[in-house]
Specification:
The protein has ten helices and 13 strands. By secondary structure, it is of the alpha/beta class. About 45% of the residues are buried.
């Protein structure tokens, strides 16, 4: 059953060195606060998985937390490359990063298979492509009913899945809505799960077709207002497009990245402190 705890306690309890970790969210509800706490607590040798790694994974990789990344697309949306990701792949800095590239449809189905406690998923998508030639994780099977040749890939079953949502009630039932990715599937596929939320409420008052995660599939729920910043939380705040553009400059240079990470993450007590420091930083930038 879910327990309301601080984010510090949730990460300390459930995320360990060497774990297979998913931080999922699509366009909005990206769990930046949780990613920062992983950096703050100095986790190492993590195998990360995410369908669309963007800034938070660039930060985790640049901070030396990651040893491997499984993904289907990576970049700074609307801006360009993830420079810390590229530096790790091209120059093994701050350490070597193994990569496993899979397609969107593969990873989406792999999460679904993991949620169903199945060892692999089956799809047509790789047939006729070069993926099978370059990836050892793609195998070929024959349909037992038709004999059709299909691709099979391993399911995704993280040690820990971390997501951000809009609300949770006092029992730990979680509500999220808007554009969703594979958050539900990631939580159901994982051995443990952490959910950060914008607010704690007495009643979820769920709108039609919203996604509800019952308390019995969640380990820890953490109250972290603005915990998806600089991404957005539908119904709460907008995306910080300025920061996404600024990140290209911050991450491009190793020393600049280190200075930013020290000031904004390592030297801050928690995410609310990060938001305060980030606001001051923005003010200084505006006055220059």
């Amino acid at each position: 059953m879910a327990h309301w705890v601080s984010l510090h306690e949730a990460i300390a309890t459930h995320v360990h060195d060497g774990d297979f970790v998913a931080l999922e969210g699509f366009t909005h509800l990206i769990p930046f606060a949780a990613g920062h706490e992983i950096i703050r607590q100095g986790r190492r040798n993590l195998s990360l998985v995410r369908m669309t790694p963007d800034l938070i994974y660039d930060q985790l990789i640049g901070a030396g937390c990651a040893a491997k990344l499984t993904f289907s697309w990576g970049g700074n949306p609307g801006v360009g490359s993830l420079h810390r990701f590229r530096d790790a792949v091209e120059h093994s800095w701050p350490n070597a990063l193994a990569i496993e590239e899979r397609s969107h449809s593969d990873l989406a189905n792999a999460y679904v298979a993991g949620a169903a406690n199945l060892p692999f998923t089956v799809l047509r998508g790789y047939m006729g492509s070069d993926f099978e030639r370059v990836s050892p994780h793609i195998r070929t099977i024959s349909c037992p009913f038709t004999g059709e040749r299909l691709a099979a890939t391993p399911s995704v079953r993280p040690d820990v899945a971390i997501i951000h949502a809009q609300k949770a009630d006092r029992k730990g039932n979680v509500l999220l809505w808007g554009i969703l990715g594979v958050q539900k599937e990631a939580v159901l596929a994982a051995r443990h799960s952490i959910v950060t939320v914008e607010e704690r409420v007495d009643s979820l008052d769920a709108p039609p077709n919203a996604c509800i995660l019952p308390s019995w599939v969640v380990d820890a729920v953490c109250l972290v207002p603005h915990g998806a910043t600089p991404s957005y939380a539908h119904g709460y705040y907008d995306r910080d497009n300025v920061f996404y553009r600024q990140w290209d400059t911050i991450a491009r240079d190793r020393d600049t990245f280190h200075a930013w990470t020290k000031e904004h993450i390592l030297d801050t007590a928690d995410f609310s402190d990060y938001l305060r420091v980030q606001s001051q930083w923005n003010t200084r930038k505006a006055l220059r």
